[in-house]
Amino acid sequence: MSKVLLLLAAVVIGFPLMVLAVAGAAITSIFAAPRASASTCLVAGADGMTLVGYGPEETRNAATIVAVGKQLQVPEQGQVVAIATALRESWLRNLTWGDRDSVGLFQQRPSMGWGTREEILNPVYSSTQFYTHLLAVPGWETLRVTEAADAVQKSAFPEAYAEHEPAARAIVAALHGAHCQPASAPGEWVVPTTGTCTSGYGPRDGEMHRGQDIAAPIGTPIRAAHAGTVIDSGPATGYGLWVRIEHPDGVVTAYGHNNANHVRVGDHVQAGQVIAEVGNRGESSGAHLHFQIEHSGNAVDPVVFYRDRGHPSLCDETKNRS
Prior knowledge:
three-stranded antiparallel sheet, 32% helix, alpha+beta
């Protein structure tokens, strides 16, 4: 074979290989972008708020998306893109199912490099991932909302995000106060919910009331009082639905009459992390949190427990009605 023919053969054979290499590099750059870590974000500034037309779960997830955006210093336009995407992909619900292996608020797929299923089901992690990929899109700020969303999601229906833009702008405006508060210091105890202390620890109607009741509207976030491990999450006689968390030094906290739980047995939680919603389930005469503390297996007065440890007062005792 002549040198000319050999040269032509090398070019013909090498060209597809070069194209495949370039394509492979492009695919790798899309799905092997630096993965954002699941930063801690204890959402504040949206407690007790419910968006018109949306329930507590959707409101809480939207507040998380907005708060994480602020933490990452993403402009408001980027927050609108993220909310519009979540409205389209999950209706602002943290879905455990989807097309193929898609899960979460943004229907991200573990098989496509977005993280593990457990990571993606963490709204803070999935929001961080979305923003990380959005910020990597050249000139995303000048794109239409639906174009910016599709640049991240690679949707089969790229114009579908456009219909959610008005709602997304209204949601971002309504949740302008949502932000990430600093994680509590190790050993710190925090108040589990915002409300009015009503029935306290002690005798009540001929029985022993083993905790502190805090009245609040249904759907108000309940937060872990201290870092620990969830040992119960589900139905409980008298409490309807409860969560129990085991902490160091033989301390266990319980949160009862919940409307919904957001943690599972075995989950490790931080102080201030949302674990449930205030409800009116079980033997309850109104929406409230029954907050109970056990030390070495014995129930103790939560108000005294907090006071003796020099932590923020659980209740204003002058308003603590028994």
